[in-house]
Design brief:
The chain is α/β, with parallel strands linked by helices. The chain has 4 helices and 5 strands, in the order βαβαβαββα. The chain has one domain: Glutaredoxin. The longest helix is centred in the middle third of the chain and has 12 residues, at 34-45.
């Protein structure tokens, strides 16, 4: 899967605008967490939805962006966490072992 690195606050406005035309998926990843590594691997191996953009946000390395995502989309920070952004809002979020591509497909 081709992830777009999400590491700048300016990307959030762009991502939000793009969500009016295409589903935006944010994977919040902790590089220190084995559960996060497993969830990322599961998503990375899955067949991606062609009608979505996928972003990878490393929460430790890019803490200000991670905090801004939680505030912008009014979600509690968790890691690992997946957020689906559509029409400028978070329409779905899941975390830990519950993260799956099936959930993304169901929500699109």
């Amino acid at each position: 899967m081709d992830f777009i690195t999400l590491n700048a606050l300016t990307q959030l406005n762009e991502l939000k605008e793009k969500s009016f035309n295409k589903l935006q998926v944010i994977f919040k990843h902790s590089t220190r967490c084995p559960i996060s590594k497993m969830a990322l691997s599961r998503i990375d191996r899955a067949t991606e939805i062609a009608t979505a953009d996928y972003y990878l946000l490393k929460v430790i390395e890019d803490r200000p962006v991670s905090n801004a995502v939680a505030e912008t989309f009014n979600v509690q920070h968790q890691s690992p966490q997946i957020l689906l952004i559509k029409n400028g809002s978070c329409i779905f979020t899941e975390s830990q072992n519950a993260i799956s591509m099936e959930d993304i497909i169901e929500q699109q």
